[in-house]
Amino acid sequence: WDLLAGVTTATLEGHVDRVVRGLAVSADGSRAVSASDDLRVKVWDLDTGELVATFTADVEVVSTAIDATGRGIVVGDRLGQLHRLRLVLPDDE
Asked: What is the reported pTM?
């Protein structure tokens, strides 16, 4: 969204079910983490709209958080478990 203009600027497509409970945006606005009823957590580059990574959970994810670096991700599932993820990109090597 362009919040000032009130218009959609891009649509992130990739989940096969609804995104209801989990969405987090990095502090600098460059990345988003979405959790869907399809048991997937996806990481998006908001500058390009590109899907960066996908994590598959065993049960529904109900919450997401992303740290200030945009690389540390925590997701909580419906069983009360927390999963700590670290985003590693190909250019990190």
From this structure: 0.77
